[in-house]
Design a protein that fits this description.
With about 240 residues, this protein is α/β, with parallel strands linked by helices. It has nine helices and eight strands. The chain has one domain: Spore Coat Polysaccharide Biosynthesis Protein SpsA, Chain A, CATH 3.90.550.10. Strands 3-2-1-4-7-6-8-5 form an eight-stranded mixed sheet, sandwiched between helices.
Length: about 240
């Protein structure tokens, strides 16, 4: 792979947020990110996959780059990355918050030029013990496998991301697939011990046990070689 440390960038960080019907939460998240930036060269890119642009229509921050796309997280994130002017790409789900020192920790980790990217340990914004257990198991899994998921806030050097061809435009498992390619190359990612806090809403909406087992089942099938297109059929039936 070509050298990916040479280009000069306008920003240090480009935070890319793929959204679909997140109009109730997006301004709170953006406010949180600007507060964390504390003078860091930062741009925020929101990519809306809804045909009526329901999320970006309510954004109240003029500096935010608002883009529209066909729905599909991989498609949306790749579009955001193509527009990014930052050296480091941060892919952030709309229901997930960086830790208070998150940007500083990413910068510290990537000061090691052998590290191409990484993610955070998972936290879930709930005091329920079951959520603490799920988060702990997920964090341990990602440390053992070196394959973090998207809700752990994946970050990566932009030039490296481009050289890897970005996310594959598949309907599921785009985060796992990218991490697998990085791992196969023998390149280094870092799992940061601080926790990215994600909302428990999908577990609460679908049922904690059902949602957890469904996710584990689908990931297991993917790792066994079942295509993401077939997995979407399982996803809808489960």
């Amino acid at each position: 792979m070509e050298d990916y440390h040479q280009r000069a960038y306008q920003y240090t960080f480009s935070i890319i947020i793929p959204v679909l019907n997140e109009q109730s939460f997006i301004n709170t998240l953006i406010e949180h990110l600007y507060r964390l930036s504390a003078g860091e060269p930062l741009e925020i890119i929101v990519v809306d996959g809804h045909p009526r642009h329901t999320t970006i229509n309510v954004i109240s921050y003029k500096k935010v780059i608002a883009l529209t796309s066909l729905p599909g997280r991989a498609l949306q994130m790749n579009l955001g990355a193509a527009s990014a002017r930052g050296e480091i790409l941060i892919f952030l789900h709309a229901d997930t918050y960086l830790p208070e020192n998150g940007l500083t920790r990413i910068r510290e980790v990537l000061n090691d030029k052998t590290v191409v990217g990484g993610a955070f340990d998972l936290g879930i914004s709930s005091d329920k013990r079951i959520f603490k257990l799920i988060a702990s198991v997920s964090s341990l899994r990602s440390r053992l496998t070196r394959i973090p998921y998207g809700d752990q806030v994946i970050f990566i050097r932009k030039d490296y991301f481009n050289a890897m061809g970005g996310y594959r435009t598949i309907p599921l498992m785009e985060d796992v697939e990218l991490m697998q390619r990085i791992k196969k190359r023998g390149d280094t990612i870092c799992i940061i011990k601080e926790k990215a806090l994600t909302s428990p809403r999908r577990w609460e909406r679908e049922g904690i046990i059902y949602c957890t087992l469904r996710n584990w089942f689908l990931v297991s099938l993917y790792l066994l070689g079942i295509s993401p297109n077939r997995l979407t059929k399982f996803y809808k039936k489960l």
